[in-house]
Amino acid sequence: MMLLILFLCIGAVAGRRSPHAEYIEELEQSLVGTPSDVLEDAKLDVPGLLIKYGYPSEIHSVETEDGYILEMHRIPHGRNEGSRPKQNRPVVFLMHGLLSSSADFLVLGPSTALGYILSDAGYDVWLGNARGNFYSRNHRRHNPDSLITQRFWKFSWDEIGNYDLPAMIDYVLEVTGQQKVHYVGHSQGGTTFLVLNSLRPEYNEKFISFQGLAPASFFTYNEHSTFNALAPYENVLESAAFAMGVGEIFGNREFMTWFATNHCIEDSILFPLCTNTLPGITSSEYFNSTLLPLILGHTPAGASIRQVAHYGQCIRFDAFRRYDHDPIRNLINYGQLQPPNYDLSKITVPAYLHYGLKDRQVDYRDLYLLARKLPNTIGVYKVARDSFNHFDFLWASDVKEMFYDRLLEYLKLAETQCF
């Protein structure tokens, strides 16, 4: 693993803004009544948000074994220094879900967003960014904007777990001098943790706890109509996308405009994405609609079509297994014609699994199925509010009271049992 230069964020990324800052500017005239702070935050990138609210902010870069250059954001201590000496601060690593970024854990602002809460509680907070999103759209050799080879985009969350996480975790341990970190992963952020520790079981020794916020793995009980409608076409969709030079999805305004023009029509097989995605995010009774421009400024942050296709395979074949290329490439990569299942018995990290009863993306019954396959599940915990859904883990107005305060207790519990 090649370690790149550490940048202090002040001055290091001058001029960079949020993924969709220009889009928000175009909408401003129609957003009469939206608080100016919301509009400002919608256009700031993650380091800009931290600086604005008086938190220490660092940008770190690391290169993976296969050449992807990833950006991490660090909040080394709280706004008011916190209660623990800096050198003794336990580390928490936060990992975002599909089409998201490190901004997920900050957009709700100080006293409410998880990144701020953890740093103020005395933790050294690191926020990861998976390959291909707005902050990690770089490679030593491959050009993400090439329409010819699309080699940059030929990865799924298998590579994120197998290459990105080891590079980031090893770097964090080296910089902090700690032996172990807490891992908090939302949705795909939980998926990649399972990938890492099943494929590289030696990494189990580097974690205090796994806090899975609706970690996506099994879809046996999935009842999401959009997922079920698109899963049978996973191979066709990916092949067609790459043939058209579209390996990246929802990473820029141009793609979203093209998608809306060509596929938000009733005869498109992708039409359910248009009708269900945004309503799925905003349907929570505890979603503050005033913050919608802020969410749209940072999300979606980009991903590979193969990440989506890989989940489609999990649904289609009812198995949590490695990416299915084709029989020949499977034989080359895995030594067998069919992709192997992830061996969850190798994951020994104490696992705390959290779910919302109204989560349509990750059904709570599938979380219990995962729990039975993990050898060291400490517990499966339902968020108290019955209407809590998948996106409430990030954006609900009551998420601090409903979940984050409780999460802090689980982190402390895991620390007492680990050290």
Automatic annotation (TrEMBL):
<dbReference type="GO" id="GO:0016042">
    <property type="term" value="P:lipid catabolic process"/>
</dbReference>
<dbReference type="InterPro" id="IPR029058">
    <property type="entry name" value="AB_hydrolase_fold"/>
</dbReference>
<feature type="signal peptide">
    <location>
        <begin position="1"/>
        <end position="15"/>
    </location>
</feature>
<feature type="active site" description="Charge relay system">
    <location>
        <position position="359"/>
    </location>
</feature>
<feature type="active site" description="Nucleophile">
    <location>
        <position position="187"/>
    </location>
</feature>
<protein>
    <recommendedName>
        <fullName>Lipase</fullName>
    </recommendedName>
</protein>
<keyword id="KW-0443">Lipid metabolism</keyword>
<feature type="active site" description="Charge relay system">
    <location>
        <position position="390"/>
    </location>
</feature>
<keyword id="KW-0442">Lipid degradation</keyword>
<dbReference type="InterPro" id="IPR006693">
    <property type="entry name" value="AB_hydrolase_lipase"/>
</dbReference>
<dbReference type="InterPro" id="IPR025483">
    <property type="entry name" value="Lipase_euk"/>
</dbReference>
<keyword id="KW-0378">Hydrolase</keyword>
<feature type="domain" description="Partial AB-hydrolase lipase">
    <location>
        <begin position="49"/>
        <end position="107"/>
    </location>
</feature>
<dbReference type="Pfam" id="PF04083">
    <property type="entry name" value="Abhydro_lipase"/>
</dbReference>
<keyword id="KW-0325">Glycoprotein</keyword>
<comment type="similarity">
    <text>Belongs to the AB hydrolase superfamily. Lipase family.</text>
</comment>
<dbReference type="GO" id="GO:0016788">
    <property type="term" value="F:hydrolase activity, acting on ester bonds"/>
</dbReference>
<keyword id="KW-0732">Signal</keyword>
